[in-house]
Prior knowledge:
With 452 residues, the chain is an all-alpha fold. Helix content is 75%, strand content 1%. A two-stranded antiparallel sheet has the order 1-2. α2 crosses α12, α3 packs across α16 and α6 (133-142) packs across α13. It is globular and about 65 Å long. The chain starts with 11 loop residues before the first helix and ends with a helix.
Amino acid sequence: MATKSGEGFSSSFGAIMAAAGSAVGLGNIWRFPYICGKYGGGAFLLVYICFVFFIGMTLMMSEFVIGRRTGEDPMKAYPKLRPHKPGWRFVGLAGLFTCFLILAIYLVISGWTLNYFWESLNGTLAGIADGDFGVHFNDFASSPFRPVLFIVLFLVFTTVVIIGGVEKGIERVSKLLMPILVVLLLVLCVRSLTLDGASAGIAYLFQPDFSKLTGEGILAALGQALFSLSVGMGVMIVYGSYLPVDDNILKTSVWITVCDFAIAVLSGIAIFPAVFACGQDPTGGPGLVYQVLPMVFNSFGGVGRLFSIVFFLLLSLAALTSAISLLEALTQWLSNEKISRTKSAVLMSVAVVFLAVVASFSFGDGIWSGVKIGGMQMFDLLDKLTGTILPPICALLTIIFFGWFMKKDDIIDELSNHGTVKIGYFDVFYYFLVRLVAPAALLIVLISGLIN
Ligand code: PHE
């Protein structure tokens, strides 16, 4: 319990569940399959693996070190480690700003998910004809009221958990939901793999087609790796500040990364074979899980409704534990400014709901769909900023701070729990990653992706 407020995770297991809960979310189940489909299936997967394990995991450890070392929120953590250079707080600020934007778009998609869960439960989806799912999705997502209702409902769940506290709210909910999520996902995988024609989906996911992997695709893989692991914007600094003092940061980070990666791949295994088995288009884009999957579920006959309920419940739970971490980052910062935790959580929720509603109104044929910034609708702009552009920029600044401005002795001391945990030659390897490999890779991919 490193923080001033005395809040913290009670055990390493609780910390892993909470941080994995943050990492595993819409990014894994909604975003990963459609991005992977767009940029060449297996080819994308190969690049993605490298980014996840070499850059994403490195950043996660770095953020944990910064968080636990200081016990502060991201805005205060950087200046605390470099007291005579207060300008570094802007890196923390950029991260929190990114969290705010991510939470807004996250709420919109979580709202859709909750609605689809509800429509699976009450049988609406089961009654829709195959050719009508696209229209159904667009009509719903572009309408002014229904999406907002579900956005608010989802946000209320999120806020209630945050008000419950770090240990009694976040940790407890994550410990309960994460295992449920894994079981639900495995059920779906088994069903998908046993469909006739499933092998085409598996081949699609694992056989590389390098012709589709452009510079833009590589940047998308990097953005996705960072987004999916929740690194780069300070959320893991926040969770790092709640890590138990004797937690082995290296081990914890490996667990979270493996878990996040496995769940992304399992989502691909749950989705692609089913999509292929039903002759649907795997490059369906953001609508893939809302327009294609319900059709796939209906083709299963009676049990399809059950699978639909399971899938959208799974997606809602995954989204909830991630939204919790985003709101926690914003709440921790505000409550360090001498505002109570409850008030901070409510204020932040109210602020973010406005942006979420704007994004929702501007989606598809929504009532504000004509409003464009730089030729893009608000929703698309937010998706691009939060999924592809801002995470690599924030991550680059974080890793430069870590590798070049933080004292190496402090890093090793924190990683090894003051010398009580053996890290072997890992320090040499790790330092090489944080000083050279990660910044160079981030810079190159960012520049080449942006000018492409
Ligand atoms: N990692 C989450 C996901 O994959 C999204 C997220 C990003 C959560 C950044 C917190 C911070 O859905």
